Amino acid sequence: MATIPLPQALLRPLAVPQRLLLGPGPSNVPPRILAAGSQQLLGHMHPEMLQVMDEIKAGIQYAFQTRNRLTLAVSGTGHCAMEAALLNLLERGDTVLVAINGIWGQRAADIAGRLGTLRAPGCRGAAGTWPAPEVLIHPPAFFPQGLARHKPSVLFITHGESSTGVLQPLEGLGELCHRHGCLLLVDAVASLGGAPILMDQQEIDVLYSGSQKVLSAPPGSAPISFSERAREKMLRRKTKPPSFYLDMGCLANYWGCDDKPRMYHHTAPINSFFSLREGLAMLAEMGLESSWERHRANCTLLCQGLRELGLELFVKEEAVRLPTITTVRVPKGYAWQEITAFLMKEHGLEIAGGLGPSVGKVLRIGLMGYNSTKDNVDRVLGALRDALQRCRRSRL
Ligand code: GLV
Questions:
Q1: What are the transmembrane regions (predicted)?
Q2: Of 4, 28, 307, 357, whose Cβ has the fewest other Cβ atoms within 10 Å?
Q3: Per-residue pLDDT tens for 55-82?
Q4: Ligand 1 closest atom vs CA 78
Q5: To test ligand 1's pocket by mutation, which of 162, 314, 326 has the most ligand atoms within 8 angstroms of CB?
Q6: Ligand 1 center to 366 CA (angstroms)
Q7: CATH: 3.60.15.10, 3.30.390.10, 3.40.640.10, 3.40.50.300. Which one for 31-284?
Q8: CB within 8 A of 164, min separation 6: which ones?
Q9: Does residue 129 register a pLDDT over 50?
Q10: Looking at residue 393, what is its pLDDT?
Q11: Which residues make up the CATH 3.90.1150.10 domain(s) of the chain?
């Protein structure tokens, strides 16, 4: 006999309030993508499903600007793609140089450590300190020095740091890595579709992103692609990758990226893939250049409005400002939690505080994909004006 009582909460209808998600992601999902995700299921090996996966692959190749055959979506969030990239590329004893310019570099270094790799220090700020924004952009000299000194087999770097709002320039980095016999691994979870990134032209060996930011699909599937150099390194592994679920050899086969018949590996999140397919289709219909321009223009409008409200942008230089997530310093005399709570309660609108090293220092406002509109710029500025009037605390 069942002895655990019925969970009363489950006997009530699911309650999901309407919110405008202008934090660092997830973004609101447009009706077309919601409709795609609510279609009836297919089996994960049905030919029609495999066709949807082929379309996703073509969409990722367009979004990443790559011809890489080993291009697919992992069944998980962008974080899962980070783990997949690191655990397939690295083996115990490999050296990895992690360029830490915010939380994602910290995470990559943590994962690499769990894999038993030797981590060359890549942090530019002393441990526990929070460097000034200009220090968060790795200057050109950092890379040749790090590569020559540590001889890593992989360099990890985040293109769009959602914790700081910094866009890391990548020009020349792929070529430099290759001259040093190193692979370039780039996190573009927060930047893909919002700022130019050209995988093949920039000689990036592994690139990944997420579904829930500019692609405006629900979290749960993550585009990833591997260059031929990266594929060859994985083929030379002496040991199997330490995860079956994320083993790129098995995933490549399931996604039709090798010459063998496609085999069952795991049950794919079918509806997440439907949504991702539509997110990629919408990006393709808009065109990458238009999408980059839309994010740039709305970010510029937002920054102008934030300055007019008397707020201080965290990233001063426009060239290295992430167009998808804007950071402002928490204004003096305010508690950031009160501002975010006020916006949620009074305006049904999410913006976020800092993350990892930026906690307590900044507020983060995301305008991504479907949410990157002039109307949303006006809404968040109006709501912030209200918050600045209502949340001031004289004792701070
Ligand atoms: C998640 O990506 C975040 O930046 O909060």
A1: none
A2: 4
A3: 999 999 999 999 999 999 999 999 999 9
A4: 2
A5: 162
A6: 10
A7: 3.40.640.10
A8: 101, 102, 133, 136, 314, 315, 327, 357, 358, 362
A9: no
A10: 81
A11: 20-26+287-390
